From TrEMBL:
UniProt-listed InterPro entries: Rossmann-like_a/b/a_fold (IPR014729), TilS/TtcA_N (IPR011063), tRNA_Ile_lys_synt (IPR012094), tRNA_Ile_lys_synt_N (IPR012795), tRNA_Ile_lys_synt_subst-bd (IPR015262)
Phylogenetic lineage: Bacteria, Bacillati, Actinomycetota, Actinomycetes, Kitasatosporales
Keywords: ATP-binding, Cytoplasm, Ligase, Nucleotide-binding, tRNA processing
Residues annotated as binding ATP: S38, G39, G40, A41, D42, S43
Record's protein name: tRNA(Ile)-lysidine synthase
NCBIfam families the UniProt entry points to: lysidine_TilS_N (TIGR02432)
tRNA(Ile)-lysidine/2-thiocytidine synthase N-terminal domain span: 33-218
Primary site of residence: cytoplasm
EC number, as in UniProt: 6.3.4.19
Any one GO MF annotation of this record: tRNA(Ile)-lysidine synthase activity
Subcellular location: Cytoplasm
Amino acid sequence: MGPHPAVAAIRLAVRRVLHEVLDDARAGEAPLVLVACSGGADSMALASALAFEAPRLGVRAGGITVDHGLQAGSDARAREVAERLTALGLAPVETVAVSVGRAGGPEAAARSARYAALDAAAERHRAGAVLLGHTRDDQAETVLLGLARGSGTRSLSGMAAVSGGLSGSCGAATRYRRPFLAVDRQTTRKACLVQALPVWDDPHNADPAFTRSRVRHEALPVLEKALGRGVVEALARTAQLSRDDADALDAWALEAQRAATRPDGTLEIAALHDLPPAVRRRVLRRAAIAAGAPAGSLFARHIEETDRLITAWRGQSPLNLPGRVEAKRQGGRLVLQQANQ
């Protein structure tokens, strides 16, 4: 008799990703794959599937748990998670304590600290990949948040199955991989239950002070009640379709930027004017970031005003963009550079 369907589903998802990791590995190399585990159902299910599949494919498997220090007893809880990972047979297993700042709000600050710790751990252990336990439900929430922000196709594309690209000390590219983007949260919880895996439910996930928690416990249930239970699947499908579109537009914009860039680094107005707005504005965003504008502070209104220097030129004054970047039109050129240069 085979494993429970929920266990079979999570193992299949991880097996597929491990085959991809092996394809990317150097010939004869047994790559190390780390799982980022909070102790919740999603990441515990991921850890259990990794522990089962990795030795069967000749992959080394370890685990990392991050202590954000945001709750009393978080250090003891991190140690418990590490003990569970070790009991599954993962090695190396490590707990990493981080200090969470305030930039961008509590959710963004915790995420930044967590990824910095995972980056460092991957570098330290020369890992070929780091697995993250985001599910189809997480993807749906991400798309809904992007839709609420009105921040465009790339925001609607949600989380990528493969992202990042660290350069480890071994010279290999370390990637974040999300095997469960096609697996729902109910399946991961069921897999933990039938395997008798203890899980920890982070109270922050139910705290209405956090935006994602409100989306999870208030917005999505209302949508499902009004539109039917296929909302999560539809939003996840929207993410993939949007990602395909955004990737195509980004590739077009890269070629357009190369064609429009003069030897002195300025942009040729004539080469940009007749481009579709979606492509031209991607070119302008890339150019502004290259000039020093922080990506997280560069909003749609900044790009729209910069675009008007090309499409609605009326002798406007130079624009002040985030990061002390100035955008101005000089003759037939668009100049983006640090102010006072």
